[in-house]
Design goal:
Elements (H helix, E strand, L loop, with lengths): L1 E5 L3 H10 L4 E3 L2 H6 L5 H14 L3 E5 L5 H14 L3 E6 L2 H13 L3 E6 L2 H10 L3 E4 L1 H6 L4 H15 L4 E4 L5 H10 L3 E4 L1 H5 L5 H16 L2
Parallel strand pairs: 1-2, 1-8, 2-3, 3-4, 4-5, 5-6, 6-7, 7-8
Helix pairs in contact: 4-5, 5-6, 6-8, 8-9
């Protein structure tokens, strides 16, 4: 299972990278705005900085919603760095653009996916990754994890190569449940990764080991 961090915050990306378990980064326009990164030039510079920190895939989202605009923007983003994955919204022109990018060998992440049918279309178009937003489904009393199971079943039935990137992950249990269900990737905040470290019995056990060691010294 790959671990991506879902942020545009460089300190948090560095911290996750230093832990040694980070496989990539996902961003979106809201995450960029949260870091105060605005305007095309600054946003592009920021993507390059992220690529310099991590070794893996970095999803960069297009703003256009029409086919020509998505193609133009996606090609510019893909030119920025070899690690860039063009993130395209799940809309009609987005699916057409994903097919175009796929034919040209440009990797894509189909975002804002909330149903199995949308995920099936993304795979048919040749998306590299599909991003079901599990937290946002949970927010409206719909089982986000069930969507992961449905997509896993469909992709396995037909051996689609599109990777399931569980997005909108909010906490450690989302990570563990996605791992059980066979999501290929999860993307979440730093807390969802570092939270996996924690167990009170580990802390109590370590304190006891150190205490006993110190008795003999
Ligand atoms: O990057 C897309 C997705 O992970 C957003 O998450 O927490 O805003 O629903 P969230």
């Amino acid at each position: 299972m790959k671990f991506f961090i879902d942020t545009a915050n460089l300190d948090q990306i560095r911290e996750a990278q230093d832990l040694g378990v980070l496989d990539g980064v996902t961003t979106n326009p809201s995450l960029m705005a949260k870091e105060g990164i605005t305007g095309k030039d600054n946003i592009f510079k920021h993507y390059r900085k992220i690529c310099d920190i991590v070794d893996g895939d970095v999803s960069a989202e297009v703003i256009s919603t029409d086919y020509e605009g998505i193609i133009r923007e996606g090609e510019e983003l893909a030119e920025l760095h070899e690690q860039i994955i063009v993130k395209v919204p799940m809309i009609k022109d987005g699916i057409k653009a994903i097919k175009y990018f796929s034919d040209k060998g440009i990797k894509t992440n189909c975002t804002l996916v909330f149903s199995a049918g949308q995920a099936l279309l993304a795979a048919k178009a040749g998306a590299t990754y599909v991003s079901p937003f599990i937290g946002r489904l949970d927010d409206i009393s719909t089982d986000g994890l069930n969507l992961i199971s449905e997509i896993r079943l469909i992709y396995d039935n037909y051996e689609f190569e599109t990777q399931i990137l569980a997005a909108s992950v909010r906490h450690t249990m989302h990570v563990i449940d996605c791992a059980k269900l066979g999501a290929d990737v999860m993307t979440g905040p730093l807390s969802s990764i570092e939270g996996l470290l924690k167990h009170p019995l580990t802390d109590i056990g370590l304190a006891k080991f150190l205490e006993d060691y110190n008795k003999g010294n």
